[in-house]
Design goal:
4 copies of one chain form a homotetramer. Chain A is mostly helical. The first copy, chain A, is built from 9 helices and no strands. Chain A folds into 2 domains: 1-60, Orthogonal Bundle (Arc Repressor Mutant, subunit A), CATH 1.10.10; 63-208, Tetracycline Repressor, domain 2 (Orthogonal Bundle), CATH 1.10.357. Chain B binds a DNA duplex through residues 17, 20, 41-43, 46, 51-55, 57-58, 62-63.
DNA sequence: TATGAATGAGCTTTCATTCAT
DNA sequence: AATGAATGAAAGCTCATTCAT
């Protein structure tokens, strides 16, 4: 077999491997919709994915790694969403906030896992670094938008505040008891918009001074 | 023994019982600081409290009951803190936000249990009602402060936004990896202050118009 | 205090002590009516008896001892019942069997405890001796009745067989599913009568030869 | 792999699975011989079987299920034993009684579980039905033998009495304290024989009349 | 590489018994 | 003598992980 053929085979194998990982991640995500992700068991994921229990351990060394991979997958998904849409201009602060919160709402597991790791998950140094990078990228994006809205020198602190505020919308209202999903989604979008307005107005003011 | 002596004894017993409950709750809380509260085991709590495992079940019929008792204890604690201090004037928006976030930071279990429920914990209807009442009281207090800062007709939505924003500070930064506790506390206070400023400025502006 | 007064006091104390034991035993028995005696807990007995948990241990060194005491109490009760009634003649074989089975049926706990100890209870040598004595007395009584009915030299084996047979009626039919208590009682009495007839006829025959 | 090879493999797996179940059941049975079956723990069974605790739960969803499986296994075993042996004639009354009691003695778990239910065990309706069927079959067999021995119209009641009597031998003497196993077995066989003789003679007499 | 049976540490909860009051 | 809070061993059961096939 020629070297290039071997390489092609390797690529194929890599693709197949990725496909399997995706299969497993999707199975896990579909279960997250039904119960807290901490209560999902390996057996359930394996069954849902249609693979053996052991197979999962051929792709992940532990459940936490799988969870973290799901987190990363979503994080990679959210970035381009925020950076720019097919249009010329990047989204404004308001769009940005609504998009982010809406993404969280439609991908609750992402939010849950992020919270889990933020609030006490034991991450490896490697994973910690990836988490930090991801968060930094999001913060950068928010900071840029804030600066576009007129924020000055302390824009980094405001970006932190805004990032926190948007996450808080989810934790505070994602499961408001007695409300329908539609009502909750509308409420979280409304709050995201209001949050953007408040941050914009506050910083615009600052800008004017 | 005289009736009054008997009553005194009963009071003593009740006090001792409360002391024990507090002992157990405190032990649990100190463990919550180190890991997700759902991962804390009865054995650990017992060991930390310096009592036998069975003793805990003399005071609570289940772990969940203990957890909820901790939540209530803190909820009862936070209200007077925010409503007014011994002084004449109630705290301003900035004080309020810093106080709340600082309370959350120094009472992580309260925040964790609240989060747990908000993200999908299964509480009894009774417990749900209590949680809602607590949250409503907090929202009322924030709304009043916002109105004092100049917020107009839509102050309720802003209060929701502010409440969410403050909670978000905790989830986003309470465990920032690689930072000392002091650094994190300083950061969360700084963010709370900034959040208050932003909300105040935005609504003051609104007020002027 | 005179010696006789002291003795009187001691008797009084002994009576009180017995009254307490009876109180505890009765409480236990009333609970046996509701659930398998192995599932009855010390706490339940104490509550039912209106005494503290520790009090029970002032009268019995262990639960098994209490159970055994209940067994003995009933055993002492059953003996005079079988030996003779107020009439001149002792009861015949048929009466004897029906009486015994009926006593078992109306005192299921007695039967259950007897079974428990017979089938695997760990009795102290002392208790074993008492159990054996009790059983021997019952066997003697049955043997006498069998001899009166005509049994010859091997009457001891037949007495064993009869004793076993009567106990077996209880284990086999005391809880026949789908039958009312009255039906079951009638059935066990009928079987006891039939058993007596069979044993009588078989041994009468033997007698004739 | 060819289809037939696959099928062979499946059969092998099924056999292995059955072998494991048998291994576990046998381990449990050997423990039942030493103590009341309700006191046997999962850990003990696992240790005795030489498997891990979790393994048992790969084969049974609960201990109760295991216990009932053991009961069924024995119930299936006892029927053909009583119905007929390889010979032309079915066993006579004497053989039948000795066989039954001897089976009980050598398969105490069957007897214990049967007793447990009879005295108040909570079986599912399904299990109750199976137990009743088993008992009815045994009664039928005894009744036939009694009729062969000359019993007339009331043979059903006598069959009930005989069934009870044989069971009673076990409860009354299976654990006679201070006797060796051999002595007890000999005694129970002797009593079974005597019981058969008594029932035969009583009914033969009835026949003659 | 895929598998799933085996594993055992670990979970919550119960309860007979002790012992300081 | 009476009490009941404290105790901890032990129960049934779960489940992430391993490993022989």
């Amino acid at each position: 077999m020629t070297p290039s053929a071997l390489r092609g085979l390797a690529v194929l194998r890599e693709n197949e491997r990725d496909a399997r990982r995706t299969l497993i991640m999707d199975a896990a995500c579909s279960l997250f919709a039904k119960k807290d992700f901490k209560q999902v068991t390996v057996r359930e994921i394996a069954k849902q994915a249609g693979v053996g229990v052991g197979t999962i351990y051929n792709y992940y060394t532990s459940l936490d790694e799988l969870f973290f991979d799901i987190f990363l997958k979503h994080a990679r998904e959210i970035e381009p969403l925020l950076s720019s849409r097919a249009e010329k201009k990047p989204p404004g602060l308001n769009d940005l906030c609504v998009l982010y919160v809406d993404y969280l709402y439609t991908h609750i597991p992402f939010y849950q896992i992020m919270s889990h790791f933020m609030l006490g998950g034991d991450l490896s140094p490697d994973a910690t670094e990836k988490l930090n990078t991801t968060m930094r990228t999001l913060l950068d994006r928010l900071e840029t938008a804030l600066q576009d809205a007129g924020a000055g020198k302390d824009s980094r602190v405001s970006a932190h505040a805004l990032f926190a505020a948007l996450n808080g919308i989810m934790i505070s209202y994602a499961r408001y008891p007695g409300r329908s999903n539609d009502e909750i989604r509308a409420h979280t979008r409304r709050l995201a918009g209001r949050m953007a307005d408040i941050f914009a107005k506050a910083h615009a003011d600052q800008d004017a001074s």
